[in-house]
Amino acid sequence: MATQAAKRVLVVAGLGNGSGTGAATARLFAKKGFNVALIARGKDIVDKLSEEIKSSGGQAAPFAVESYSAQHIASAWGAIRNHYPSPEYNIRAAVFNAGYGVWKPFLDITPEEVQTSLQTNIASAFAFSREAILSFKENDIEEANGKRGILIFTGATASLRGNVVTSAFAAGKHGLRALSQSLAKEFGKQNIHVAHSIIDGGILVDRSRAQKGPEWEANEDVRLSPDSIANSYWYLTSQDRSAWTWELDLRPAHEKW
Amino acid sequence: MATQAAKRVLVVAGLGNGSGTGAATARLFAKKGFNVALIARGKDIVDKLSEEIKSSGGQAAPFAVESYSAQHIASAWGAIRNHYPSPEYNIRAAVFNAGYGVWKPFLDITPEEVQTSLQTNIASAFAFSREAILSFKENDIEEANGKRGILIFTGATASLRGNVVTSAFAAGKHGLRALSQSLAKEFGKQNIHVAHSIIDGGILVDRSRAQKGPEWEANEDVRLSPDSIANSYWYLTSQDRSAWTWELDLRPAHEKW
Amino acid sequence: MATQAAKRVLVVAGLGNGSGTGAATARLFAKKGFNVALIARGKDIVDKLSEEIKSSGGQAAPFAVESYSAQHIASAWGAIRNHYPSPEYNIRAAVFNAGYGVWKPFLDITPEEVQTSLQTNIASAFAFSREAILSFKENDIEEANGKRGILIFTGATASLRGNVVTSAFAAGKHGLRALSQSLAKEFGKQNIHVAHSIIDGGILVDRSRAQKGPEWEANEDVRLSPDSIANSYWYLTSQDRSAWTWELDLRPAHEKW
Amino acid sequence: MATQAAKRVLVVAGLGNGSGTGAATARLFAKKGFNVALIARGKDIVDKLSEEIKSSGGQAAPFAVESYSAQHIASAWGAIRNHYPSPEYNIRAAVFNAGYGVWKPFLDITPEEVQTSLQTNIASAFAFSREAILSFKENDIEEANGKRGILIFTGATASLRGNVVTSAFAAGKHGLRALSQSLAKEFGKQNIHVAHSIIDGGILVDRSRAQKGPEWEANEDVRLSPDSIANSYWYLTSQDRSAWTWELDLRPAHEKW
Which of A62, A210, C49, D101 has its Cβ near the most Cβ atoms within 10 Å? Predict the structure, then answer.
């Protein structure tokens, strides 16, 4: 059983190009003293972000995966456990931020896109959750927050509503939300905190910055800052056992909804 | 473009052993004058039900599928269109009643069960919906109900809530519900009606009859009759274009919820 | 205890000017053989609709109320019970269709408008429900549908969402929906069916007809027909005890939602 | 227009006996440097809590109201604005924590209890919100969080579900939730943040402590600490404009839901 003195580890999956929610969460938790294990498809991004965090005085390590298959995710977690062995380290937080979006009229969506949505948004989340919970169950309960660990999922508007061009994306995000609720109910009793965010608006990442231009970027009222989402994940992590949040929504002040 | 005089066809997928919702829907629509195309895994059940309907004076034909893969579903629909060619026949209703349930603590659920849930509950519904909508788009609008066609999905309690032992099932059913909502929004404008039922209770089928015994079977207040669910599908089919229902819940009078 | 041979009575409250949901429900149930007790503010409308139904061969009686206060509603029900005495008559259905809408920016809404919304949309529904349930509890269970009685509430988009100009209306309609759910759960066990409709679109009534013009009126795809809503209430009334619906939504085929 | 240098004021309404959410919020915001205006029925509690906060080095002032009528609430806010005049002070946060609960079978609930629920849970919230928003509109936007002000409502399980004995309470809490959503949508665009918490479990207050005993009190996994709820309100207050939460749920780690 791990001790309170162990170094805390965050595992985060889904990093895009390093400008979004996953990377911001990694940076913030690193600043707060966590060792950060970075999972993403693509060696470049995990290496780059890992180096960036370390050069800022934090601790991080890269764990690229070939795909988000159950097998590859399990392998990555195996490598993480080797890299951050108990009892010196405790995996205390896990953020599943991987996702796959497709916005198309229904008849234009291919069976392959449906498969990718279900695989990336749901099946890989099952695999990631399994590893996170197996790790958390080995931990003792932290005094400060009453948790063995916290598992956070990044949701979207499509987690709550199917819209005209979101059939495949919404199916994936609805499924992920269901998983998160089942886990929250099953593992809360074991002091494992499971939370789900509804990101209801555009996030400021490199891609949206390029598409929408400097005026949009400059207007904090109309787009989500990845750092602000990361702050909410940190708040969730700090919630003590008497008052845990399963779900919160996050949107810019001026968002129409 | 099909004419009003064409014979109406229902395609129903998911028949269990012939004692549940899919079969009851097939029987009811056959009584109402529909030709019924039966899709299920297993030649036995589609043949048996087809014969039963025909011996009761109805019209039906069997279309067994090896699996609910996109490819097998598309092939079955191809065979159905050949069997019921336009303009003599119009495919006017499609009921997706296939499903896969697994009730287990999260850590006991295998990656294969997750895959089967996503494939059967969601991916196959995408494939089925695609074929239904492509067929409906060929139809004119029926005067009586203002529809080119109606596509109905069978949901469950798990469509709305993830519970302790339902993570994989709820992920599938949530995804299906999202699909149905996207389709309702996209294709309502084309006079294609998409509906989703929430079956919130135990259905009286051979398996539950065997498990729960004659007292439960005899008590109509505590279990859903497949015929009553079929009645609701018939009501949805008859709704005129001014007032369509996307979603309704169905539960026994004495159900605790 | 009332007998199966008793004449069935519908009590409906909220008739507008006789061109909407309440009046269409009264006409339909009268055609189906119900005696219809009409509650509304304003003697003119209840008298006029009562005469109209009788001249069409139906049975109806007017019960004007001064207001929808608990006291006036109880008095009206007292008069109805006298007019349709047991065991000759059974009050078997009750539809609460009264409502008060106000669409204004929040700061323009007066405390009086808030009060009227809460009184008409919620408090009067409590009073109406109390009388309906007390009457239903005196009934035996009808064989055909397994009910002692059915109580139906008319909801709206604002039952599910608060929007920019709907604060007072949505507060009222959310409250009504909560009441209907509590009642459905408490009294289902006593074979009293409670249902709630979500009317998600514009209804074709005299006022909207005047506002939106003949093109809108002629286009069945864009507005709800009161008769179609009434059909859904009749369907709910006919549902047998094994499969009752608490909530269904109704919207025109082309509605954006 | 108020300046950034102004002293920040929190107005909180609904203090129970000073052992619950309202009082904990007052204490926490006082520690964070807010001047706290205390509204409650009963001079004793506002005086006592005001003294307590001042004796701990904070700033507070009592504003007892005779009732939560629109008129009394407006008067209290008038007195608060006089006590904390602009531009020296800015009312920056308002927490509506007043509520009225009644848990009874439907037929045991009196019209007076319905009225009290609607008045306290909804109508008074309209009056309180009006005053808060009128005050916030006078403020400039704070740099740190992008807000003119934040208005927080305390909700409950009954905000989302009507249950067997909660008809009157749920009607009130559903209505409050609708109000909060309408306000969030209307005033977000003016940089006024409106949030709603779902308290889904028992809160540790003097009354529940007395009822449930020392074992329950000692077990942080099974009851909500008012301080933890207050922490969530502080977190909401600190959220920057790019990522505001309208709604979050809060429940103890071991809560069954």
Answer: C49
